[in-house]
Amino acid sequence: MYHKNKICVIKVVYSLLSMVLFTTVAAYGQNLSNIKFDLARVPFSRFGSYMSLSTLDHDHHDTKEIHLCDLSGAKVFSNNTVLTIAPWHEQQTVPVKYEATPLQVQGKTTLGTLTFYFERPERLHIMSDGPGVFLKGNLDSSNTLRVPGYNKTWKLRDERMVLTIKSGNGGFKTENDKNGFWVEPEQGHLDIVIEQYRSDWLPVQYSVSYAKSMEILKKELLQWEKNTVSVSSAYEQGRELAAYINWSCIVKPNGIVSRYGMLMSKNWMFNIWSWDNCFNAIALSYHQPKLSWAQLMVVFDQQDSTGALPDYINPHHMVWEFRKPPIHGWTLGQLMEHSQLSQKQLAEIYPKLVKWTNYWFIYRDGNHNGLPEYYHGNDSGWDNGSALGVEFPIEGADLATFLIKQMEVLAKVAIKLGKQKEAAYWNRRADTTLNKMISNFWDGEKFVSKNALSGKVNKDSRSLMAYLPMLIGDRLPKKIRDKMIDDLKKPGNFVTEYGLASESPQSKLYGADSYWRGPVWAPPMLLIIDGLNRSGEKDFARQLAERFCNTCEAGGFAENFDALTGQPLRDPAYTWTSSTFLILAHQYLEK
């Protein structure tokens, strides 16, 4: 079924595709500072910053213009572009070709080079040795700051940002459909500083040079690269891009974000969702345990009195309308395997994980049968998954699986904390829930999800969601486990050259870009691969890991991928994908 010669052909095809789908050109062993990437796919930003540069507009089209974006969440999902920036000379924009590296973005023109770089997370410089710049957006003449000595500083409307002309001459242009702000070089040099601030902008002396900024950034990137997990040479190019994406998506504590947190993307999915963060925590757990711990706890810091976790957070907003699946116990188990957690850390998370577990049984079990329910597709993380194609509330084996795993981990933590009776309690409760899960959701062929009141199921569903119980395959009866493995291995069922399809391509409900009804996604890949590996299916787990990592190596780290072509879909630079790639390439494919 899995022929070596076919895999070799696939690798060759992927290698060719990688030159078309994205422009990263890192060579094996090359310093992270020097990789190149396409601004229409991967934003330019840096560790700690809530700003990014991209050529994608709000409708996700490549405009060839630089878009400066605010990622603080002040605008939620509205247009987060603050300014568009273009080279400018003699009252008109000039052609430009951009090259992006983790250090800087350079726009090459016939007049010279436009350079963008971060002096620090909240301070972006725009420099030029030739062309001027034209900025469109939230600047106007009434917003000049009245600060002595800073008559070249303007506030941006409705933004906590200011623009200062450090070197150059500028003004407002409001004619011939060219409304905006222009800046021309002064004595052959231009330097504009754009800064974010939290409450009041305070005048500063810009004393750090471009050269010094580059030196600091190179050291930081070198250290991050050393702390990124190792992979085989076949995946080194992907490792470099994944390392940059994860590094650049870390933001500083700000408002609701209480710790250094990794955004899901610095394109348009710029929040921290409370299951996406788990995959990032695992990827960091091998060599950056403190930062890994922060990813897990940044959402638990906002846990409410019922034990619920918010759907997502950003500095300005929390969403409570939905939940996310309780994979946090499994995540904690992964962290315990990869790094040495202290007694203090275990004591910190144990009561929070207890409350999160009890929340589902107390507040999400309307029919009181001991099997918690989803009230909306978003609660499951599978939004529009076909297994959810009946009226809510819906109960199913995937949610029960996550809670069983969570109780299993709670028992292990309880033992480490000297709570022997509580450990025994969690083990008993996990066994009870497992028995109920099997008796209620196993129909003899597969696990099903059903309306909690009527028992109705979507008979047309052929969703991979039914196979998430593979995560606890080592606890399942052998007959059930073997049937699930056979189904997963069956040609054309779920396995494609690119991973596991979220809906079988043979299903009448399959859609190539139908979100959770077709594409390959990182989370179920890692969850199912982990379960297969623990169930003794090590070769199959490795084969699936190889297919997914090959897909990422060719197409970058999109939110998801077409299951039949491998084409990257939706947000093209998503951290749970880059993190899952790093985990699988390191843990399953390095040797």
TrEMBL record:
What is this protein called in UniProt? Mannosylglycerate hydrolase MGH1-like glycoside hydrolase domain-containing protein
Q: Which organism is it from?
A: Mucilaginibacter lappiensis
Q: Which family does this protein fall into?
A: Belongs to the glycosyl hydrolase 63 family.
Q: Which domain of life is it from?
A: Bacteria
Q: Which UniProt keywords are listed?
A: Glycosidase, Hydrolase, Membrane, Transmembrane, Transmembrane helix
Cite a single Pfam family from the UniProt record. MGH1-like_GH
What SUPFAM superfamilies does UniProt report for this protein, alphabetically? Six-hairpin glycosidases (SSF48208)
Drop me one GO molecular function for this one. Answer: Glc3Man9GlcNAc2 oligosaccharide glucosidase activity
Q: Which residues cross the membrane?
A: 12-29
Keyword Transmembrane helix part of the UniProt annotation = yes
- Which parts of the sequence belong to the Mannosylglycerate hydrolase MGH1-like glycoside hydrolase domain? 271-577
Q: Name one GO biological process term.
A: oligosaccharide metabolic process
